[in-house]
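The material for today's practical consists of a large collection of protein records. Read left to right, the backbone structure tokens trace the chain's path through space. An example says more than a description, so a record of this kind follows:
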Amino acid sequence: MILQALASYYRRLSEEAGAEVAPEGFEKKEIPFVIVLDRSGHFIGLDDTREGEGKKKLARVFTVPKGIKKTSGIAANVLWDTPAYIVGRPKPDPKKETVKLLERAQEQFQCFQDTIRATFSDNEQDEAIAAVLNFLGKRDFEQLFSHTAWKEIEEKGMNISFRLDTDTCLICQRPGIVAQLIGNTQRVEGGDTHRVCLVSGEPDEPTRLHTAIKGVWGAQTSGANIVSFNLDAFRSYGKEQGLNAPVGGRAEFAYTTALNSMLVKGSKQRMQVGDASTVFWAEKKNDLEDVFADIFGEPSKENPEQATKAIRILYEAPKAGAPPLTEDYTPFFVLGLAPNAARIAVRFWHAGTVGETARHILQHFEDCKMVHGPKQPGFLSLFRLLVSTALQGKSENIPPNLAGEFMKAILAGTPYPKTLLAAVLRRCRAEREITYPRAALLKAVLARAARFYRQSEQEVGMALDTGNSNIGYRLGRLFATLEKIQEEASPGINATIRDRFYGAASSTPVAAFPHLMKLKNHHLAKLDNRGRAVNLEKVIGEIMDGIVDFPTHLSLQDQGRFAVGYYHQRQAFFIKNETN
């Protein structure tokens, strides 16, 4: 299902006007430097295609023949590669002997020439191919090696290609050469090597080694695979590598090209969810593709209303007379990929419609609605919610499985993972702080669970609810009121009862509240404003009405309601002060 959807997306890109996707047998590749030759194969110069300054220099992306999957053996790309293949100069490696590196580089250099001759055996007289072979055959590279940029090229093993001085495109992009390469990639139907492709269902020659997927955060920089069989334990019935899951060459090229195009740096169709690099696409061009990353992403400082505008699009028709996104039946897909050694693990997968996905996203933001300060955002980003569950508020400490399960629940409209409630409460107890994102998460988890499982328990609202009789919620309100009394009795106090008693009060109320109720009397006696003391006593009386005994312990759900009740009551105090 995943590979089929990706292959379909490649077909959509190849048919769309203006879509820059590589044709079959080619790929998009950064080529930092281009060797310029004349028609006789003499060196003219070295073009630097990079833009920017310092470490932020970005190389230009060219459409080049699809690269060979590099293993421990020697295999050259067609008309582009690293200095070891282009001119026989290896990348320095202090862990290896220089002599052996040079010997291997000479073998790679010879392989590069042999690959060109084998690929263009019928096109040997083409002036561009002849120029490259003449340049390589003379082995006169002194002008190239004396170039100021060569040292950096060799040390970093940068990609290099060729161009004729009279052309504006690379040699591998010349129309005649492109036609020759496309002809070489065409496969003859039938034959002993053909199998039924698991993706397309059509006869095709299975791909032995699939193209590496690059751009997944945390994976190998050289790329990793979704489909691979590199150990005997992964093989069946004596089949080797790709034959264990026969994916035809056309389907393999389509799904890897589509996925790499979405994962490329700067792509608007990718976002990070915990440790999962997440891509998303629709079967047809759709407005949800344009705003999906903005909805869940952290808004930039230059455009703080970015997420709000994106969410508003979900409510409104994209243009006059068009139906809203919530009624759009176009298939929509979301794929989360996480690193797993030399492979890529599928963290989550969502296949639905645009309308279904939009409705579930809107429900998520409705569930997370929470009263907040005037300077805080109305909609919390996915990143802001997740880091509130992490140690020290750092993204690298977000539990990986939690992030994936959370995103899956949002897209599918199912209850949030139970581990989410425990993770938020753990951070509340450890840091003794109930922040806006944590309160919003707790309220969302409790409200969605009550609605989904049709529980008789009253749902937690977005603001103070004096009619909520749940013992956990009421005790949270009581704890916030007792803390407020202490703060007003001792202005500027460094540590409040929250710093000392929050853990006990939220889990075993009977061990903390009797003592706190005694302390309350001492704090009220310190208040100079007796009217204020009476008002606070009335709040306590309203909360305590009907509570006979403090419970010995609170369940995990009631501990969540305790935190929300505390947050609601604190916000109510601030709002009243601002109103006054």
Remarks:
- The chain has a mean pLDDT of 86.
